[in-house]
Amino acid sequence: MRIPAEFLTFTVFFHQDVHLFFPNGGLIEDAIANTPEENLGVIKQSLEELNSGRYDEAQLRSIWRETKAEISPFRGEEGSCTEFLKELRTYFD
Q: What is the reported pTM?
């Protein structure tokens, strides 16, 4: 999958120091609120593609690692990128 620039820009919000900026959570909501409205549709389409079932967990992890995110919804074999991306998609309804 070619990752759109809009999605890459969105993943910048998943920064290693996120707890300093969002000590009570709210990362996803704030990332959406600070993303230009014209980019939200592209991000939603990207999430729909990632959640389409065409990619397995290993592929989704690889795609996530190609973004600008510094934190991951998984560590080693723990966690699930699949479940995280499904949850992330719900914020775009």
A: 0.87
